[in-house]
Amino acid sequence: MAKIVGAIMTSHVPMIGRAIANRNLQQDPYFKPFFDGLHPVRDWLARVKPDVAVLIYNDHGLNFFLDNLPTFAVGAAPVYHNADEGWGLPPFGSFAGDPRLSWHVIECLIEDEFDIATCQQVVVDHAFSIPMLLLWPDERPVRTVPILINTVQHPLPSPVRCAKFGRAIGRALESYEEDIRIVVVGTGGLSHQLEGTRAGFINKAFDLECIDSLATDPSRLTRYTSRELVALAGAQGVEILNWITARAALEGAVREIHRNYHIPISNTAAGTLLLEPLAA
Amino acid sequence: MAKIVGAIMTSHVPMIGRAIANRNLQQDPYFKPFFDGLHPVRDWLARVKPDVAVLIYNDHGLNFFLDNLPTFAVGAAPVYHNADEGWGLPPFGSFAGDPRLSWHVIECLIEDEFDIATCQQVVVDHAFSIPMLLLWPDERPVRTVPILINTVQHPLPSPVRCAKFGRAIGRALESYEEDIRIVVVGTGGLSHQLEGTRAGFINKAFDLECIDSLATDPSRLTRYTSRELVALAGAQGVEILNWITARAALEGAVREIHRNYHIPISNTAAGTLLLEPLAA
Amino acid sequence: MNAPKKHPEIPGTIVFDGEMAMKGYALNRMCYSFNSAENREAFRADEEAYCAKYGLTEEQRDAVRRRDVLAMLEAGGNIYYLAKLLGIFGLNVQDIGAMQTGMTVEEFKQKLVEAGR
Amino acid sequence: MNAPKKHPEIPGTIVFDGEMAMKGYALNRMCYSFNSAENREAFRADEEAYCAKYGLTEEQRDAVRRRDVLAMLEAGGNIYYLAKLLGIFGLNVQDIGAMQTGMTVEEFKQKLVEAGR
Ligand SMILES: [Fe+3]
Ligand SMILES: [Fe+3]
User: Fold this and answer.
1) Of A64, A142, B84, B211, which has the maximum CB count within 10 A?
2) How far apart are CA A138 and CA B15, in angstroms?
3) What structural domains and CATH numbers belong to chain A?
4) A192 counts as catalytic
């Protein structure tokens, strides 16, 4: 049977792409505090060697438009191409899919009454490619399953619904018959806001509360509405929904392997968190 | 406050389009038994004069492709155009939307934990246009809200989930603040199958069971899985999910105003059912 | 929930599930393009080139060449998309019903009329 | 559930909900087209014609002409789509952060560094 070996949450700020394209920048004082936080995660990955990464993220207007914007979507393609998003980030190539696992997850989620969209083709954006390159800078040893959450068009799914969705994803993965090791990756956040007169908003206290809650008591975050998350974490900080969902894929008690928090990368408070199920 | 005045279920067989384009055919013995069943429904509509029709139907590969196929979707456009589906049915023009009501429904459904896709543009197919023309042959006096259910790509939503979805649609409509009268229309069915060596499959006994159940005890239909509906009603007969959803929008006891059942139109058992909430 | 159960077979019916969807994507994508009259024209003008452009598998191309509906379904074709291709060939749902069941179109129509008795 | 409650205002923030979506559709649809380099080129070549083709409202065209981000948001623009248009103007998220808050870019960056203290 398949086994979830852990959950990684990490930011996907486009500016990180610069320091991926030019690795020298990773030693630059601006980027170093964030990249230093990734080494323990890469060491852990080298040790646990997952076969598959399930990426829980939000599309930023590359793959989906407002004419058909799913609340939750699951990719089921043999390969996912990263593409031009229009504002200058160079694409980072392609990522192998695992359509058989995708369809298993889709079957389970529909049976569990999640009304997902199924996507047999997905162009993945920086919220998928940047975390993949952060976690596996030199090779692409894992197959991937993209799971997308709407953070573009309100009403967004509530934290409660996302937590239920994450738990259902976890159950689906654990019921897969093949003996594979799966890591769940939630991308985005932490606090930031791009638009409006509150642009540049950061909420360090709330970010630290989020990291603590996800590590020790994730139910604390499900008290909030998605609107309240916008107020507390900023309009884009609501990407914490991806973290909440990824965290909920782990059942039972967890062990915190690593955390990192740094302000700023571009307009964003950047964070990383690695949790392992205690049973693992 | 808004009020649901009734639910109409009717078939959307493309061949009906011929007798819409050429009304003389409606007196032809092939079409007459079906069209005769519509007169009491049109009389009822002339009497209750709804302001809005909410159409619950399935797209047949015109608006959605497998790259982004929602389980449930809600349209929120100011106008919906009917278009060429590739196999010869001439389009029947355009239908006015009610985006404000659409967004109200969307807000309510997300709050109720239905993971719908939102669609600010929808090209409607024969499953929308044919019922509209059957119900309002001479004018277009209602605004519309399209609600789409996946019947193309398995896994489909279960009858249980569809019934919950329908009830949530009903609650959403009834909580709308404007004093409007709304009719819910479920389209498609009844038993038919286009593909495979079982093409031409019809199940009269099951169709009559469906009509009876929806009129008197809709919970009987939610015992089935969607796969069982395929076995019992045919691969396309599974469109009964649209009827189940529309019926569930009505709360409490209902009065049956009219029913009609006739085999065949093209490959399909064609039916019509009109129910009114007893409280109305 | 646990792993979805294996579903019982439904006689004479290929349920279009993930398995079939994986197989049929190229064919279905081509068929979806036929919502546009221009694309239907391009297919008519050069069928082989059009199929190649959409990367159809050899099994799919062969089924299309032979106008063999059952083979198209076996190759992962979904009937809702196939209907657009079959329309180009001048086949409606009663024609393909007859083809798939090995009847004449008249026999197929008669079978449906009798189902109502 | 009953009618969704009116949500409290969030200072300095326009929540992109149905209300804004209804207002902004034409602008957002244009911006979505800028995922394609060819379309970005066409916009650069003839901005007015490109805006007309997508049916922008006068309010939206005026906001685009003036490179006024706050006005684009008021006109229903969604930041995820607007970012593609702003990229054409050579503006990144820190540039527009400064514009919207009335700071210089250096001041805006400094404000972010200070948020970490
Ligand atoms: Fe983001
Ligand atoms: Fe149909």
Assistant:
1) A64
2) 58
3) 3-277 (3.40.830.10)
4) yes
Q: Which residues of D touch B172 (CB under 8 A)?
A: 1
Report the SS3 class of residue A269.
Answer: strand
- CA dist B146 to B85, C111, D105, Å? 18, 35, 46
Residues of D in contact with B107 (CB under 8 A): 4, 18
DSSP strand pairing (B79-82 vs B94-96):
antiparallel
Helix ranges (H only) for chain B are 16-21, 32-36, 39-48, 99-111, 126-135, 159-174, 204-216, 226-233, 240-248
Residue the block writes with tokens 């929808």: B122
Phi, psi of A57 (to 5 degrees): -155, 180
Chain C residue with minimal CA distance to A2? C3
Span D9-33, pLDDT tens digits: 999 999 999 999 999 999 999 999 9
Number of residues in chain D: 117
d(CA B30, CA C113): 10
Cβ contact B189:B11 at 8 Å: yes
Give the other-Cβ count within 10 Å of B52's Cβ.
23
- Which tens digit of pLDDT belongs to each residue from B190-246? 999 999 999 999 999 999 999 999 999 999 999 999 999 999 999 999 999 999 999
Interchain contact D104–A (C-beta under 8 A)? no
- By Cβ distance, the residue of D37, D86, D94 closest to A266 is D94
Q: For C8, phi and psi rounded to 5 degrees? A: -65, 145
Which stretches within chain D are classed as H helix? 18-33, 37-45, 47-53, 58-65, 69-74, 79-88, 93-101, 105-115
Do the Cβ atoms of A117 and B70 come closer than 8 Å?
Answer: yes
A175 has a chain C CB within 8 A of its CB: yes
- Using CB atoms, pick whichever of B103, B176, B177 lies closest to residue D18: B103
Using left for φ > 0, alpha for ψ between -120 and 50, and beta otherwise, residue A235 falls in alpha
Phi, psi of A184 (to 5 degrees): -100, 130
Strand runs labelled E in chain C: none
Question: What does the alpha-carbon distance between residue B17 and residue B270 come to, in Å, rounded to a whole number?
Answer: 13
Which tens digit of pLDDT belongs to each residue from A231-269? 999 999 999 999 999 999 999 999 999 999 999 999 999
Q: Which residue has tokens 């409290």? A: D8
The residue written with tokens 């009109």 in the block is B274
Instruction: Starting from the CA of residue B188, give the closest ligand.
Output: 2
Residue located via tokens 């019922």: B131
Kindly determine whether residue A111 and residue C1, on different chains, have CB atoms separated by under 8 Å. Answer: yes
> Are A70 and B70 in contact (CB < 8 Å)?
yes
C2 touches chain A (CB under 8 A): yes
> A184 near A250, Cβ under 8 Å?
yes
Calculate ∠ Cα C64-B17-C13, nearest 5°: 40
Q: Whole-angstrom Cα distance, residue B76 to residue B57?
A: 15
Report the number of secondary-structure helices (H) and strands (E) in chain C.
8, 0
Query: Which tokens hold the place of B235?
Result: 């691969």
Q: Which helix (H) or strand (E) holds A161?
A: helix A159-174
Q: Which CATH architecture has domain C18-91?
A: Orthogonal Bundle (1.10)
Q: Which of B63, B109, B113 should we substitute to test contact with A (largest number of A Cβ atoms within 10 Å)?
A: B113
pLDDT tens column, B42-101 = 999 999 999 999 999 999 999 999 999 999 999 999 999 999 999 999 999 999 999 999
Distance CA D12, CA C109 (A): 66
Q: Where are the domains of chain C?
A: 18-91
